[in-house]
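Pilot study result, target chain (169 residues):
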Amino acid sequence: MTGPLPYKISTLLFLKNTAGEFLLLNRTNPPNKNKWSPIGGKLNMETGESPFECAIRECKEETGLEITNKDLHLFSIVAEKSFEGTGHWLMFLFDCQKTIDQLPPAIDEGQFSYFSRDEIETLVIPETDHDILWPFYDKHHRNFVIMRADCNPDKKLEIIVEENLQANI
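Predicted structure:
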């Protein structure tokens, strides 16, 4: 029997160019090694970093693009239980209103490319991104939704929406 799994807090940031294509990173490290995903990273909890501060820092570190809180729309909080059987994640998902048209150079974490939303469906992406992340982005990126997902690799993926606030747009 194994001990308790670690709990990590992270951000994911959906960046687009002016053509509406998404900037994705082909990750060279776990989690999601050799898979395409939005940029992001873990909060610096020892400094008390907020999810917004983390998204701003990760955007600058990974792409060179400087953004502010006003450029970000928090559209989802996702609690993933037992992701890949290695840990639990609390993720804050942001849609960035500022565009990035210059493709960032490769970084230690991987290589970047732009993809249309349709092209993303043909990429190697994490199963939870295919089943949760992108469908919920499509449906809720202008709203706000809180959900949880049981990602235990020994069971069928279970997704539960805990709160769904619709914007008056």
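One observation from the pilot: The first strand starts at residue 7 and ends at 14. A full batch analysis is planned for the follow-on phase.
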